[in-house]
Amino acid sequence: MTLESPSAAVDCVAWFSHHKNIVVVVVVVVVVPTAVIIVVVLVVVVVVVFVVIVEAAIVVVVVVVVVVVVVVVVVVVVVVVVVVVVVLMIEVVVVAVVAAAVL
């Protein structure tokens, strides 16, 4: 069916008028559910992507916090060890000086 002549247009209108119930059924049964499914799938994809991004951001924050805590603990331990070693060395030197002075 082509629209090359006015009679073809009339034929189109007549066909649609005759089959409008079928067209409505096709739209209601096929097009609307398909559109709803597409919208639902898009919403689910957006939500999943958002959740993945948020979870990834949370994981990154947790990893950064853990790394910072580990670095701080290591630095504190190193500083404490250095201070203890220095204090012990000073005590050894003081004891040696006192012992040398007494002897």
Q: What does this entry look like structurally?
A:
The protein is mainly alpha-helical and about 100 residues long. Helices cover about 95% and strands about 0% of the residues.
In short:
This protein is mainly alpha-helical. The protein has one helix spanning 6-102. The mean pLDDT is 78.
Distance between the termini: 124 Å
- The shape, in one word, is rod-shaped
- Give the count of helical stretches: 1
Main sheet: strands, sense, barrel: none
Structural class: mainly alpha
Radius of gyration over alpha carbons? Answer: 41 Å
Which segments are poorly predicted (pLDDT under 50) over 5 or more consecutive residues? none
Q: Could you give the topology of this structure?
A:
Elements: H1 6-102
What keywords describe this structure?
single chain; 103 residues; mainly alpha; 1 helix; 0% strand
